């Protein structure tokens, strides 16, 4: 079997490629695979995978931003609560009266 330089490079890439768990690295790997695909059908499949991974990445970003906004909101509430507790109000109220006289 004779391999063209293109196919040798492609197979070397496939053999050396690791399967990343990080979505950014996974997206980069899929992009490289889609660009190096030998047929138009394979490229189309790769582009669909890229689109799916980008949608997942965008959803995770939105979820992260929403979580950060929630943390900021709760932090502001806690700060306001603590400020309220720190403000001391001094008042005077008679609890009882003692009367006495000397005999």
- Return the domain count: 1
Number of helices: 3
Number of strands: 0
* Unreliable residue runs: none
Q: Kindly state the mean pLDDT as a whole number?
A: 79
Which value, in Å, is the CA radius of gyration? Answer: 34 Å
Largest sheet: none
Shape: rod-shaped
Based on helices, strands and strand pairing, what is the structural class? Answer: mainly alpha
State the order of secondary-structure elements, H for helix, E for strand: HHH
Q: Span between N and C termini?
A: 127 Å
Into which percent range does the helicity of residues fall? Answer: 55-70%
Bin the strand percentage: under 5%
Describe the 3D structure.
There is one protein chain. By secondary structure, the chain is mainly alpha-helical. The chain has one domain. The protein contains 3 helices and no strands. Helix 2 runs antiparallel to helix 3. The radius of gyration is 34 Å and the shape is rod-shaped. The protein starts with a helix and ends in a 17-residue tail after the last helix. The relative contact order is 0.07. The mean pLDDT is 79.
């Amino acid at each position: 079997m004779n391999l063209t330089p293109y196919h040798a490079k492609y197979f070397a890439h496939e053999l050396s490629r690791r399967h990343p768990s990080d979505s950014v690295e996974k997206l980069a790997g899929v992009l490289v695979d889609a660009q190096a695909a030998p047929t138009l059908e394979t490229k189309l499949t790769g582009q669909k995978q890229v689109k799916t991974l980008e949608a997942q990445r965008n959803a995770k970003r939105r979820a992260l931003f929403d979580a950060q906004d929630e943390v900021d909101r709760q932090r502001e509430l806690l700060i306001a609560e603590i400020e309220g507790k720190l403000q001391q109000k001094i008042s005077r109220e008679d609890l009882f009266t003692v009367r006495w006289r000397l005999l």
